[in-house]
Design goal:
alpha/beta, three-stranded antiparallel beta sheet, 13 helices, 13 strands, globular
């Protein structure tokens, strides 16, 4: 197997700190959470309280999902969700073993880790060269009699092709789950994603638009699935110290739920600011020979959890790592996300046959670069960063 080389650049942190850090949490002010924090502390109820229930209802109203379950992280939501789904399938048809989950390789490693943790096998497929989300055609080609689920992803906040993937899942008779870690703030036809498919799992970690410190949200159309998740986040306890499906401590604390509620109330403004920054980046870098930009499908809005581009070294004159190093020398922090891609990581490479190429994934892993984004980045700062990139091409 000819592996695409991962990024070799680990730029030293400038002595005075980064001039433009890669990300800073976009947090509500303390005045926005003080009364809730005080109420929680005074009550002494630090888990399983009113803030958790109110937060779940806030997300249900936003997404239109039938059921919402808050958990301690997106990864925990994916892992418990896949385990619950597998148990439901085994119970419904014990004679048909379904152990494979079809997912993109160009994604964060938490997704295949959750698959393996749940006792299932990842089947990696390629991404679409324009949107960088999973290719529906590649997904359909990978489905077989052992397929348990499709696990797609809203890559960098760009929505995956939900209509095509839902149609494929319906034809195959398997559930569509979405790793929606980047998805709060992502819109399709003007509506927040979350109700589509069997389940979508969102992240609330500090790099996201809605922040709870740490945490995750599972939206689902299935009452039985939601009930299983609620038990699993309590170690699998059925309420009477019985356990039919082992779980773990996946609870979201009350303080985190309160932070999440205050952050969720700011979502539209946070997305609008990120959109303005993304437009500034695109204005400066769109059409530049050798720079490719992620294509957002018509009628959709990205959350712009990340602003990422790809760099063709032959046309641009320098490769991704050289640009990364140049920006680091200017005090600008960047990331080469998903390099190496999941199917080339030691933990998961054994699940991917050497004779099954993923050319788009390997190209993106070798060329993509994510630029600073967050509450500290303004359109003016984005234009300055873009100018630094263009200056590298002129040296």
């Amino acid at each position: 197997m000819n592996a695409a080389p991962p990024s070799t650049i680990a730029p030293p942190r400038p002595a005075a700190g980064w001039r433009v850090p890669f990300v800073r949490p976009d947090l509500p002010g303390y005045d926005e959470v003080e009364s809730a924090f005080r109420r929680i502390v005074d009550s002494g109820l630090l888990t399983k309280g009113e803030e958790l229930r109110a937060f779940e209802e806030d997300v249900r109203q936003l997404t239109g999902a039938a059921h919402v379950v808050a958990v301690s992280s997106c990864t925990v939501g994916l892992a418990l969700g896949l385990r619950a789904l597998h148990a439901m399938q085994e119970q419904a048809d014990p004679r048909r073993p379904r152990t494979e989950v079809v997912l993109p390789s160009f994604t964060f490693l938490a997704a295949p880790a959750a698959v393996v943790w749940a006792g299932l096998e990842p089947v990696f497929v390629d991404s679409d060269p324009r949107s960088w989300t999973v290719s529906p055609a590649a997904v359909e080609a990978a489905i077989g009699p052992r397929t348990a689920a499709i696990l797609a992803c809203h890559t960098f906040g760009c929505p995956c092709d939900l209509s095509a993937l839902e149609a494929i899942a319906d034809r195959a008779g398997i559930p569509l789950m979405i790793d929606a870690a980047h998805g709060l703030g992502t819109l399709v036809a003007g509506r927040q994603v979350g109700r589509e498919g069997f389940a979508q799992v969102f992240s609330l970690s500090p790099t996201k638009l809605v922040v709870a410190g740490e945490g995750g949200i599972v939206c689902t159309s299935s009452a039985a699935f939601a009930a299983s998740l609620r038990e699993q986040r309590e170690y699998g306890n059925d309420g009477h110290y019985g356990c039919t499906l082992p779980g773990l401590n996946g609870r979201l604390p009350e303080l985190s739920a309160a932070m999440g509620r205050a952050s969720l109330a700011r979502l539209d403004g946070v997305r609008d600011r990120r959109t303005a920054v993304a437009e500034a980046y695109r204005e400066m870098l769109g059409g530049v020979d050798g720079i490719g930009l992620q294509s957002i499908p018509a009628g959709c809005m990205s959350s712009w959890k990340d602003f990422s581009l790809s760099i063709d070294p032959e046309r641009f004159g320098f490769d991704r790592d050289a640009v990364m190093e140049h920006l680091a020398s200017r005090g600008i922090d960047t990331r080469a996300y998903y390099s190496p891609p999941c199917h080339r990581m030691a933990a998961f490479s054994g699940h991917h046959p050497a004779d099954r190429p993923l050319p788009v994934t390997d190209r993106l892993a070798a060329t993509s670069l994510s630029l600073p984004m967050g509450g500290h980045v303004t359109p003016a700062i984005a234009r300055d960063i873009a100018a630094d990139i263009l200056a590298r091409s002129e040296e």
